[in-house]
TrEMBL record:
Species of provenance: Rubrimonas cliftonensis
Keyword Kinase: no
Pathway named in the protein's UniProt entry: Amino-acid biosynthesis; L-lysine biosynthesis via DAP pathway; L-lysine from DL-2,6-diaminopimelate: step 1/1
The name this protein goes by in its record: Diaminopimelate decarboxylase
Gene encoding the protein: lysA
Span of domain Orn/DAP/Arg decarboxylase 2 C-terminal: 29-373
Keywords for the protein's UniProt record, in alphabetical order: Amino-acid biosynthesis, Decarboxylase, Lyase, Lysine biosynthesis, Pyridoxal phosphate
Length: 422
């Protein structure tokens, strides 16, 4: 499932001991495995075999350009949600035609940049957006290829903060209104309808919501075609969940997800677009950190790490579980005691885990926070003026820093004291 394993008593990323990376780069840092990225990309690609399809990696999950380049070389397209992500995908060498541009609030400037880049598909989420896109395209003498994102009103049964396909969510147009939105699209001079799009949420751990949503989309495709629209592409979004608790979680397999896609929308003669982010990236990355102090607490000890909520916000934001392991393999029979694993930031919410059974770990020892490749580095901030941490890409016995830590001077020189403050 991933390529972070113990070998000779030490946790490795592929063939590289994590301790070697820590010694060379310092901690905290993110470490990504090419082998895991590739495995997950291929698993999804193979799950859709036999159907014309493109796997567009959701750049929001992990946007480092080296990672994007690696995936692009495997044949991935990209799903972007901002001009910044678009520029990253282009910098990574992804052809515009393999980029889909999503998001509820695209600005005119972002639309122009995407048209300039020749993106293959705009996933449009409202009528005002449709009108704006048409205006921008006409002003550039172009036509924008469009899929309307429909909201199928399906309960994705995931965390409320990452569900996107229920009627009350801000995403997409209600599927019941899709026919009139398509009629409007067809009448706009700057719009060329190419498909339909749906995405119901993230970290889905059951297939039924996908099945329901895709079945509704299949029915809609029939109706849209009858109305004369050219639905050449069906974009089914991302959202397939991954195991965060290695010992006891088994989300649906990509192969079974592929079967759902095949039996719902696979036979409609359209190209299938998928937008997986987490599936490809989550277990391809760890956040490597050091224990700064072991502090005696009333109920249990605190392990205070040099990584914090600003580096990985998922536990604070979603109460998300991440496995945390010692980089030096615990000896058989080592006492396992509950500890609170926290960071140095001034917030009580700055905790990676509460009462987590851990082996004895002293100051200076290394830990790896697993499953941190997706929505890890990309959601980090400089809160407490903590520099964004380096990112390291491993391939077999080789590793490279693919984002360096900024200096404090670089962080501060972006700001300026106006003359009138003296
Ligand atoms: C439109 C869209 N596509 C793709 C994704 C990627 O989702 P995931 O990382 O769960 O595969 C998201 C995030 O939920 C999204 O909003
Ligand atoms: N950022 C979220 C997922 C949001 C998915 C993006 N639409 C997470 O860490 O789980």
């Amino acid at each position: 499932m991933d390529h972070f394993d113990y070998r000779d008593g030490a946790l490795h990323a592929e063939d590289v001991p994590l301790a070697e990376i820590a010694a060379a780069v310092g901690t905290p840092c993110y470490v990504y495995s090419c082998a895991t990225l590739e495995r997950h990309f291929r698993v999804m690609d193979e799950a859709l075999a036999g159907m014309p399809h493109v796997v567009c990696f959701a750049v929001k999950a992990l946007s480092n350009v080296a990672v994007l380049r690696f995936l692009a070389r495997l044949g991935a397209g990209m799903d972007v949600v901002s001009e910044g992500e678009l520029r990253r995908a282009l910098a990574a060498g992804v052809p515009g035609a393999k980029i889909v541009f999503a998001g509820v609030g695209k600005t005119g400037a972002e639309m122009a940049a995407a048209l300039q880049a020749g993106v293959g598909q705009f996933n449009v989420e409202s009528e005002p957006e449709l009108e704006r896109l048409s205006e921008v395209a006409v002003s550039m003498g172009a036509q924008a290829p469009v899929a309307v994102r429909v909201n199928p009103d399906v309960d994705a049964k995931t965390h409320a903060k990452i569900s996107t396909g229920k009627a009350e969510d801000k995403f997409g147009v209600p599927i019941s209104r899709a026919p009139e939105v398509y009629a409007r699209a067809a009448a706009l001079p700057g719009i060329r309808v190419v498909g339909v799009d749906v995405h119901i949420g993230s970290q889905l751990t059951a297939l039924e919501p996908f099945e329901q949503a895709f079945s509704r989309v299949a029915a809609l495709v029939g109706a849209l075609r009858e109305a004369g629209h050219d639905i050449a592409r069906i974009d089914v979004g991302g959202g397939l969940g991954v195991p965060y608790v290695r010992s006891n979680e088994a989300p649906p397999l990509p192969f079974d997800y592929g079967a759902v896609v095949r039996r719902t929308v696979g036979g409609l003669g359209a190209e299938i677009v998928v937008e997986p982010g987490r599936l490809i990236a989550a277990n391809a990355g760890v956040l490597l950190a050091s224990v700064i102090y072991r502090k005696r607490g009333e109920a249990r000890d605190f392990l205070i790490l040099d990584a914090a909520m600003n580096d990985l916000i998922r536990p604070a934001m979603y109460d998300a579980h991440h496995d945390i392991v010692a980089v030096r393999e615990p000896e058989a029979g080592a006492a396992i005691l509950p500890a609170d694993i926290v960071g140095p930031v001034c917030e009580s919410g700055d905790a990676f885990a509460k009462a987590r059974p851990m082996p004895p770990l002293a100051a200076g020892e290394l830990v790896a926070i697993r499953s941190a490749g997706a929505y890890g580095a990309v959601m980090s901030s400089e809160y407490n003026t903590r520099p964004l941490v380096p990112e390291v890409l491993v391939s077999k016995d080789r590793f490279d820093v693919v984002r360096r830590r900024p200096t404090y001077a670089e962080m501060i020189e972006r700001e300026r004291i106006p003359d009138w403050l003296g």
